Amino acid sequence: MTNDSGQQDDDRFPDEDVALIEETRKFFGIDREVRVVLAPADYPADKLFRDYDRKYLYHVDGDFGGKSVCTVIPRPPCSNDTRADSQLEQSRGGAYFPDHDLILISEEPTGGFTRKQVLVHEIGHIRQVCQKYVLDPAHGSQSMWEYHNIAVNENPVRFKDGEQARLIYDDPDWTLTSSAADHYQMRASPNLEDVWGIFKGHVTGTQDLKMLEEFENTVEDKAYDTEQQVARGSLKVTSRTHKYKRRDFIKTRLACRFLNDLHKART
Fold it and tell me: If we measure between CA atoms, which residue out of 42, 40, 46, 60 comes closest to residue 107?
């Protein structure tokens, strides 16, 4: 919000974030409010949202004001001694919580992401929920949930804004674990031809199958024909690494993460 002189009011949620949230909400066809809390480092995690400065809150009022970071993220153990932003470290600085219909992000993003990138990704999860997808092991895998969101929701915004695609959810997705590679009888760093068929043979359940179909249809777009340079050991795009075709790279990373998670759950 701006004051009469056209300057940003310091006690209001940042104008650029409001514009981004509303533009992204409309781009995704979300017809309800998006609620966001910026978790500052100097607030305790049990501080109620109603007691936050308004510059940290967007559409967080009414009953939502009675919640806190501890309410939304009770694990690991959370108390007055816990910093609000540190409770988000396991989520790498940002997450959407469907049970609370709330996005929580650190005031200062982590992992090499910008606040814009975090917000777009988390609003993408809201779109998934609006489409009746559920983040629950009984309904589908987290790996499918995350890579579907990256391909179907997050990257179209990046392409629209002339930015590089996001092609990996997390650094461990680069390879299969040694035990998973042994189990599936593949190299730890498989190529797409080797891993994709095995991966698809293990995808079951209505939600994962539907998400996979949408993922595959999306990455057939010509935007994924392009080669892109990606840094291993970092989620940042860089010019100092090898080039990969976007389509092959993101499909291989989804397959590795899915098979790693599946093998871990079964052992």
Answer: 40
Query: Who contacts 15 (Cβ-Cβ below 8 Å, separation ≥6)?
Result: 1, 2, 8
pLDDT in tens, 228-242: 887 665 444 444 556
What is the b/e burial string over 185-207, where b = at least 16 CB atoms within 10 angstroms of the residue's CB?
Answer: ebeeebebeebbeebeeebeeeb
**Residue 134, Cα to own-chain centre: how many angstroms?**
15
Q: Cβ atoms within 10 A of the Cβ of 45, count?
A: 23
> Which pairs with CB-CB distance under 8 Å and at least 24 residues apart come from 107-112?
107/38, 107/39, 107/40, 107/41, 107/56, 108/41, 111/235, 112/234, 112/235, 112/236
Which of these, 101, 172, 178, 116, lies nearest to 143 by C-alpha position? 172
Statement: the pTM of the whole predicted model exceeds 0.85 = yes
Q: What percent of the chain is helix, strand and coil (3-state, nearest 5)?
A: 50, 10, 40
Max distance between CA atoms of the chain, in angstroms, equals: 67
Residue with token string 């990969």: 244
Judged by average pLDDT, the poorest of 5-19, 161-175, 236-250 is 236-250
- Residue whose C-alpha is closest to residue 212's, from 232, 224, 197, 227: 197
Using alpha carbons, list the distances in angstroms from residue 22 to 15, 17, 68, 103, 114.
11, 9, 24, 14, 17
The number of C-alpha atoms within 13 Å of 37 and in the hemisphere containing its C-beta is: 35
Query: For 194, left (φ over 0), alpha (ψ -120 to 50), or beta?
Result: alpha
